[in-house]
Amino acid sequence: MEKAIYSLAEAINGLSSTQSDILNYVAIVISFIAIIVSIYSIRVQKNLNNVNLQSDFYIEIFGDYLKNKIPNSAKNLTYDCNGKMDNSYRNVSKVMFSMIRECGYFKYIDNSFYYTLREKVQDLDEYLVNLAGKRVMNKEEQQNNLISVHKEIEKIVLYINKKYQEY
Questions:
Q1: pLDDT digits (tens, 9 = 90+) for 28-48
Q2: Which of 117, 150, 157 is nearest to 131 (CA)?
Q3: Dist CA 83 CA 140 (whole Å)
Q4: What pTM did the predictor assign?
Q5: Of 157, 106, 154, 96, nearest in space to 126 by CA
Q6: Domain range spanning residue 108?
Q7: N or C: lower Cβ tally within 10 Å for the chain?
Q8: What is the total count of domains within the chain?
Q9: What's 69's DSSP letter?
Q10: What is the pLDDT of residues 93-114, one digit of tens each?
Q11: DSSP states along 88-122
């Protein structure tokens, strides 16, 4: 009987040792998972902070231009009684180039965005200068020209909005 008790005690000790090893293994696995989740959380938080910062800069730099300055300057585009685009086109160009100067931050943060935006604004300016140099007496053609200018401005605004949505 003593031998049976002794064998049973050894079996329990052996079982306990195996369970202890399993628990230690599970604890190590859980610790590694916790470390990985912590590192992932830190990265996600860092990216989120960067996105929020970029978003704030977009709003600060482009907000007033997109809501007020660009629409107000564009709605004043007209032709005079001589069939020439009046000087309102200069104000549109002035507003757009002012926006480019103010978004110089992106020249260093997102070089491609900055130079593409600047190129689009320069193309718009050239288009406006080209239209302003022509005499157009036909009211329908004048209206079509103004619509095409608004479409070019719309492309610029959509480009800015698309980039903002990436953040």
A1: 878 888 889 889 888 988 877
A2: 150
A3: 12
A4: 0.70
A5: 96
A6: 2-166
A7: N
A8: 1
A9: I
A10: 999 999 999 998 889 988 999 9
A11: HHHHHHHHHHHHHHHTTHHHHH-HHHHHHHHHHHH
